[in-house]
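Hi support team,

I've been running sequence recovery on a batch of backbones for a student project. Most finish fine, but this one hangs at about 90% for roughly twenty minutes before it completes. I'm not sure whether the input is malformed or the queue is just slow. I've pasted the C-alpha cells below so you can try to reproduce it. Let me know if you need the job ID as well.

Thanks,
M.K.
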C-alpha cells in the first residue's frame, strides 16, 4: 500500500519500506532476557543500538504478555514504562506502548508514546477512548481472548488469514464510527497460546504468506515475528515477512531483522 503512517509529528512513507520495530522489555518477567532493560539507562543504550542497526520504532512493554507470568497492577506497569518513555522521547525515538490496560496507555501517551500497541485487540471501550481522545496511532492485535493472560488454545484453521481479515474488517468499521482511523493491523501470531505448538508454528507461517488479505483492508500491516529458540527459524519468519512486504516487523532480534531488510531492499 502507499500513503503515510502518521506518528505524532513524524510521517513514515508506506509501500517500499519495511520498518523494524525493536522490542524493549521493562518487565523482569520477560522470557526474552536479551531485550530486558533493568534501568532507564539500559533502555536508552538498547534503543540507541537498535537505531544504529537500522530500527525506526521502539515497542516498550512493562508487563510480560506470556500467560505463565503474573498480571501486575496498572500502577506498577506505569512506574516501569513512563520514565523510560520520557527518556526515549528526549532522544527522538518513536515509541509504542505495548499494553492491554487503558490506564497504562493513557499515561504512556502523556509521556510521549505515539502508538498504542493494544494486545487486547482494541475491544475495550476505555482503550478506544484513550486512542480517540489522544489522537495517537493504534495497533490492533488479533487475539482470541480478552487479553494475553486469558487465552486458551488457539484455533487452528487453514484460512486463518482470511478469518482474521474478516474480523479486522468489522473492527475497522466500528473504530471508524468512533473516529479512530489511524490503525495498524497485527494478526497476533506472536502471542503465546496454550495448545498444539507445532500446529500453531505452521499456521504462523501460513498467515504471513496470506497477509495480502490484511493489506486489502487498506491499513498498514505489522507482522510480529514469533520468538523461537532457533535463530534460523527466526530468520525464516523475518524473511517471509519481508518477501510479503510487511509495512512493519516487530522483532526481538533487531540486528538480524535490519540486516535482512537491507538484503531484501526493504530498508530506508
Amino acid at each position: 500500500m502507499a500513503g503515510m503512517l502518521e506518528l505524532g509529528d513524524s510521517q513514515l512513507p508506506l509501500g517500499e519500506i519495511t520498518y523494524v520495530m525493536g522490542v524493549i522489555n521493562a518487565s523482569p518477567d520477560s522470557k526474552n532476557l536479551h531485550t530486558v532493560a533493568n534501568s532507564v539507562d539500559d533502555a536508552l543504550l538498547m534503543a540507541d543500538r537498535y537505531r544504529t542497526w537500522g530500527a525506526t520504532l521502539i515497542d516498550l512493554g512493562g508487563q510480560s504478555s506470556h500467560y505463565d507470568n503474573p498480571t501486575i497492577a496498572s500502577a506498577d506497569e506505569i512506574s516501569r514504562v513512563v520514565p523510560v518513555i520520557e527518556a526515549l522521547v528526549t532522544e527522538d525515538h518513536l515509541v509504542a506502548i505495548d499494553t492491554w490496560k487503558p490506564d497504562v496507555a493513557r499515561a504512556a501517551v502523556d509521556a510521549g508514546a505515539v502508538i498504542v500497541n493494544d494486545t487486547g485487540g482494541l475491544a475495550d471501550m476505555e482503550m478506544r477512548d484513550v486512542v480517540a481522545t489522544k489522537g495517537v496511532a493504534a495497533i490492533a492485535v488479533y487475539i482470541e481472548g480478552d487479553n494475553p493472560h486469558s487465552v486458551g488454545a488457539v484455533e487452528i484453521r487453514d484460512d486463518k488469514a482470511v478469518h482474521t481479515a474478516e474480523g479486522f474488517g468489522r473492527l475497522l468499521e466500528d473504530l471508524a464510527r468512533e473516529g479512530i482511523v489511524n490503525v495498524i493491523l497485527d494478526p497476533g501470531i506472536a502471542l503465546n497460546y496454550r495448545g498444539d505448538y507445532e500446529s500453531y508454528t505452521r499456521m504462523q507461517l501460513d498467515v504471513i504468506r496470506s497477509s495480502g488479505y490484511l493489506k486489502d483492508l487498506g491499513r498498514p500491516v505489522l507482522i510480529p515475528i514469533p520468538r523461537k529458540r532457533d535463530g534460523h527459524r527466526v530468520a525464516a519468519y523475518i524473511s517471509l515477512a519481508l518477501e510479503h512486504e510487511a509495512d512493519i516487523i516487530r522483532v526481538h532480534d533487531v540486528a538480524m531483522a535490519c540486516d535482512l531488510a537491507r538484503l531484501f531492499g526493504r530498508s530506508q
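--
Follow-up from support: It reproduced on our side and the slowdown came from queue contention, not your input. The chain has a mean pLDDT of 95. No action needed from you.
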